[in-house]
Amino acid sequence: MNTKTTNTQFIKAEAKRLGFMSCGVSRAGFLEDEAPRLEDWLSKNRHGEMGYMENHFDKRLDPTLLVPGAKSVVSLLFNYFPEAQQRKDSFKISKYAYGTDYHFVIKDRLKELLFNIQEKIGKVEGRAFVDSAPVLDKAWAARSGLGWIGKNSNLLTKQAGSFYFIAELIIDLDLDYDTPVTDHCGSCTACIDACPTQAIVDPYVVDGSKCISYFTIELKNEIPAYAQDKMEDWMFGCDICQDVCPWNRFSKPHNEPLFEPRPEILNYSKSEWKELTQEVFSSVFRKSPVKRTRYEGLMRNIAALSQK
Length: 308
Hints:
Blueprint: H1 3-17, E1 22-27, H2 34-43, H3 57-61, E2 72-79, E3 92-93, H4 102-121, E4 126-129, H5 137-143, E5 148-149, E6 155-156, E7 164-171, H6 190-194, E8 200-202, E9 205-206, H7 212-218, H8 225-228, E10 234-236, H9 240-243, H10 263-267, H11 270-274, H12 278-284, H13 294-306
Parallel strand pairs: 3-10
Antiparallel strand pairs: 1-2, 2-7, 4-7, 5-6, 8-9
């Protein structure tokens, strides 16, 4: 077995030991196919008020601009599908936000993985990324054979659906590269049909500025009147296009203690959410992704849902 293969096998085994669901590797280089798609998406203002999406256009498409001398993108999936879910008659929070903020949880594992690679293999330069830098994580995961990008623009896998986080190590180490898998969406349009705001404007194209997740997290102004009666009780994020996806019937509960739901998230009624105070918000959502919308933002969302 050559060194490249040995190193690749070590990285994948170590990723599994650290709790990652799966790991794939692709050659670092310019994402030629993604460039026109990203340019078109931005030109049609499908990012809405997410101005940061316009920044670092070149870096989003070329990982060697993020890590000089980069040779490999190691893509990793981390399961967050919860065993317990919220009561049906309450305002809803996206499943990824039930527990501790994934940035804390996964970044620590990635740093450990990179450290272990350096300990085992020697001098390897690289950086860890978890959804907070200009990296097209779904495109890299698809290139690395971890799934295909579905009609709802999420990465899908036959074995586990889509309720997982995507992260990367970009490193200056030659490895064995995986190959993409085929698309298994077929003629299914479940996600397109189910989206209340018609944010999936074409198969495989989501207008971010029409998405319920955008309204409840990214949008800083008032939620538009036309959207308020279509939000189906989502107060933070939205899982509709994932919930209806047939591949998510294969989702299995995660085993990460830090992602365990906070009891209030599962049990609070609508009236309890409406009466939420800043103090309780700070306690319930300590180290939570929900802190991103701030107390004022969450109460704005609840007020919009309560006007129906």
